[in-house]
């Protein structure tokens, strides 16, 4: 007979599973992250896992949407507090450092991520698309930032800057300091 959980226990287990998944995904990737291992670490049975998530993919979808949502919320607050290009620069630096912690955010073209995407339901894929769209609009739709260039150009520059994280291992200088330098020198060309 399946054990029942209180609402407080359910919330705790769900959050714990998400954190365990996030850690394993960043370290091992989607394919090598095992539901059995996550359940073992969370102290629940594999059968109990399906009380919380309909599938491994549902958990991964929730993790990426949660991480992206938290990043967007924090970056938005940073921009709102400063209400200028300096707030945008601070937000970009924060985003970059968060991407550095969560490599699955920038490895969307990897075989591992493609396997995940091919297993997502239509609804889950839609959630990921919505989350990615929110991230893309973070700077272009912000009422406190006025673009000095075409919005698509600004979005392309921002995306290019952040995706430079893929080169972090080959840079002869600190990748974070390099990113900060680029942001500090480009943000005035993008926003008033």
Automatic annotation (TrEMBL):
InterPro entries: Homeodomain-like_sf, HTH_TetR. Residues 34-53 bind DNA. Residues 11-71 form the HTH tetR-type domain. It comes from the Bacteria. Transmembrane segments: none annotated. This is TetR/AcrR family transcriptional regulator. GO terms for molecular function: DNA binding. It holds the Pfam family TetR_N. The lineage of its organism: Bacteria, Bacillati, Bacillota, Clostridia, Lachnospirales. Keywords: DNA-binding, Transcription, Transcription regulation. It comes from Schaedlerella arabinosiphila.
């Amino acid at each position: 007979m399946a054990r029942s959980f209180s609402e407080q226990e359910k919330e705790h287990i769900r959050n714990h599973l998400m954190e365990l998944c996030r850690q394993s995904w960043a370290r091992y990737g989607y394919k090598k992250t095992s539901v059995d291992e996550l359940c073992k670490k969370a102290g629940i049975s594999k059968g109990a896992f399906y009380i919380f998530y309909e599938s491994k993919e549902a958990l991964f979808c929730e993790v990426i949407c949660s991480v992206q949502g938290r990043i967007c919320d924090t970056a938005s607050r940073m921009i709102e507090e400063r209400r200028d290009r300096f707030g945008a620069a601070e937000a970009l630096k924060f985003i970059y450092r968060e991407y550095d912690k969560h490599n699955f955010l920038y490895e969307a073209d990897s075989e591992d991520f493609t396997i995940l995407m091919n297993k997502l339901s239509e609804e889950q894929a839609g959630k990921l698309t919505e989350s990615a769209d929110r991230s893309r609009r973070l700077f272009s739709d912000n009422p406190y930032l006025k673009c000095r260039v075409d919005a698509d150009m600004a979005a392309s520059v921002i995306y290019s800057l952040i995706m430079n994280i893929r080169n972090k291992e080959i840079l002869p200088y600190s990748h974070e300091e390099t990113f900060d330098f680029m942001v500090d020198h480009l943000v005035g060309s993008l926003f008033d």
